[in-house]
Please model this.
Amino acid sequence: METHYQLETELLKVGIMAFGAELFSVIDKKSGFEFMWDANPLVWPRHAPVLFPIVGKLANNSIEIAGKRYEMGQHGFARDQKFEVIELYKDVVRFMFEPTEATIEKYPFSYKFFITYELVDETLKITYTTLNTGTENMYFSVGAHPGFKLPEADLSKYAIVFEKKESLDRYILVDGLISDMTENIGNDIQLLPLNKELFEKDAIVLKSLNSQWLKLVQTESNYAIKLNFAGFPYMGIWTKPGQEAFLCLEPWQGIADNVGFEGDISQKEGIHSLGPGSELSFTYSLAFTC
Model:
C-alpha cells in the first residue's frame, strides 16, 4: 500500500502522506525549489500537521464531554493517524479518517473526517469536511499548521502582507493557553516586517482579521506564499523561538483553551456544534511563487 501520494500540474508537484494526511512537499517544477519545511527532527519534526478535533492546547490537557473528562494532547490526534485514500486523480486526492478504539478513549464521537487536496495551476486548495455519523451533537475544531521553508534563514528579510489594513493585537500565550493579555504589533498596517524577536513569546495569535488573505513575502525576491483563509476566524503565525529557517501560517477554526478554562467542550471558544447526520466543510488555499 502506498504511503504517500503525488499531485501535479505544469507548475507544481505536490506530495501528501497517508499518515496524518499531511502535506509534505510542494516543488516549483521550473526552479526545483521546495516550499515545505523538511521536518528536521532537531528543530521541528513536522511538515504541515492537521489539527483535529481540537486546535491548540487544552487546560490540564483534558476536556469535559457530557460530564466526563478525557485526556487529549495539543492539537488533537488526527495528525498521528493513518488516513484512507478514497479518491485519487492527477490533481485531486481525498482522504478519510474514522474513529478507532484508541481515539474513542480520547474523544467519544462517531464521525467521518475527510481532507481533500486539489491542485490548480500554482494554487493548492485544502478542504476539511466533518460528517457526524452519530446520534448526538458532536463538538469539534479543525485547523491547519503548514510550515514553509524560507529561502534564506533570516526573518528580517521577510514580511507578512495583509489584504486590508489591520490593527494587530496578538493574544499572548501562557504555557500554550490563551491569556487575557494582548500586545499590539502594528496599527493600521498592511505590511508586518518579521524578525525573530516577534516569536520569543511563542506564536502570533490573531482573531477576526479584516483580511481574507495574507502573503508571506521575501522583500527582495519573487518568493511568496499567498494564504486565502476566508471564513477562518483565527490565525496563527509561528516559528520555533530562535529559528529563522521556516515559518508556519495557520488558519484555524478553533483556538487553544483560555487560561483556567474548566467548562464542557460545548462551551469552549471556537468550537463547532454538528448535529446528527450533518456535515460541515472549511476550505483554505495556498498559492506559491518563486
